[in-house]
Design a protein that fits this description.
alpha+beta, about 400 residues, four-stranded antiparallel sheet, 12 helices, single chain, Butyryl-CoA Dehydrogenase, subunit A, domain 2, three-stranded mixed sheet, Butyryl-CoA Dehydrogenase, subunit A, domain 3, 3 domains, Butyryl-Coa Dehydrogenase, subunit A, domain 1, binds flavin-adenine dinucleotide
Amino acid sequence: MPIPNPNGGALTEEHVQIRESVRDFADREVVPIANELDNKAAEIPDHVVRKMAELGYFGLIFSPDYGGSGLDTLSMAIVAEELSRAWLSVGSVMTRMIITASLVQANGTEEQKKKFLPGLCTGEILAAAAFTEPDAGSDAAGIKCRAVRKGDQYVINGEKTWCTWANKAHLLCTTVVTNPEAVKKHNRLSILLIPKEPGDGFHPPQLAGSPIPTIGYKGMNSYSLQFDGYEAPAENLLGGVEGKGFYQLMSTYEIARIQTAARAVGVAQAAFEAALRYSQERTQFGKPISDFQVIGHKLAHMATQVEAGRQLTYHAARMKDTGKRCDLEAGMAKAFCAEMAEHVTSEAMQVFGGYGYSREFPAQRFWRDARVFRIFEGTSEIQYEVIAKRLLEG
Ligand SMILES: Cc1cc2nc3c(=O)[nH]c(=O)nc-3n(C[C@H](O)[C@H](O)[C@H](O)COP(=O)(O)OP(=O)(O)OC[C@H]3O[C@@H](n4cnc5c(N)ncnc54)[C@H](O)[C@@H]3O)c2cc1C
């Protein structure tokens, strides 16, 4: 029985082809391993990451002058959606390179663009984002991690937390305090691109890391990091000028939120498809449970919610491609899709009944994964703050 596969309406032939080719890769290489690896809390296999790099997923939206594919934001959203439909963690690998390369492309010096962008696009440089600290999450400007210039190096001391994929990364894209004396707290920050060797051992005692146990989003570990005199080249200060970090970081919020909304659509789509299939296979009272009107309506509601989230996300992506400010649209898409994914995945578990609670079926994985969307890339409360401010601007 064919699974409804909404094409998002008015997609170009190129966008449809992108969706089909990513779905083909994800169905072949990711779907068969996702549940087993999630159950073992095992990391995404390196060969899957290499394949995504070869397929160009990390450099989709970046300039061909620096090794990217020069595609639009909508293409990036479709890729993120399809990979996340297979496994959220796999759809989240590209997030790190997209955030870091967006920061470099928008704010880096010419030397920094040449140094970092080609490697980030091809996956030779794998990145992780180290913005959050134990005492500063939503309040991104409230960080304490300090970087002090010493000759041609910065010496870094402080803590970061929730740095996802820090073990695999060659480069930690990190917010640091370089100007503690600045009157406005937002002017204290810089972004430093901190090189490290990939591997679980980090670089003790100057750089230590330990994974944080989580309920979902397996496949990638998120790390607490301690910097104790770790050094990074001063030439890696983003843009070459201290005190600009907060504003540089804000320049990536729109793209990161669109990418996250697309990931939520992908997870919700997977849950909906699984529920639809199961409802036609499972019989109770002598007929498929899909014949019960209440289940049919549940499926109809789920499909409607997923499509609404998809269209909000694609709208924000199209706005981004016009070059217009789209923090309102990106915030709405991110906030809506986070809640939508939590609801749709929970409803999918309900359709599965007791089997929905079993780790042998993927419904519970979709639900555990979906819960994170309201927390990371700006909590839902922060999204609504952004949306309210824009609405009340007058
Ligand atoms: C699985 C996972 C992966 C992550 N990966 C990364 C990563 O790779 N890199 C990285 O830097 N970070 C990462 N994060 C961190 C994530 O971005 C933060 O958890 C998030 O920004 C929230 O910060 P916090 O946890 O400190 O919560 P807090 O900021 O302390 O918020 C706690 C509660 O207060 C609310 N709140 C806070 N301020 C306001 C306000 N002004 N108005 C209304 N409500 C408010 C929040 O919405 C929330 O409900 C990850 C988190 C998770 C769970």
